[in-house]
Amino acid sequence: MLKDVTIHDYESDTRTHKVVRSLERACAEMDLPVPVWLDVNIQDFKRNAKCRFYQDSFMEAVGFDYLEMQIIEEDF
Length: 76
Known about the structure:
By secondary structure, the protein is α+β, with helices and mostly antiparallel strands. 33% of the residues lie in helices and 13% in strands.
């Protein structure tokens, strides 16, 4: 693992908006480009509340194998 960041989002919003906003905030904190959500990412995230963004999800070259995003805890 090269870097690790945890984002807390206490806004009252849809799950989708929270996930997208959290990914954007995490990428900003780590000074990374925001990846594009491919169909494979969406399906993995729906199944596991976790997904990996590989090089094909980024518009720019990145210096790592993948970026993993995971929901640790969720309010219902």
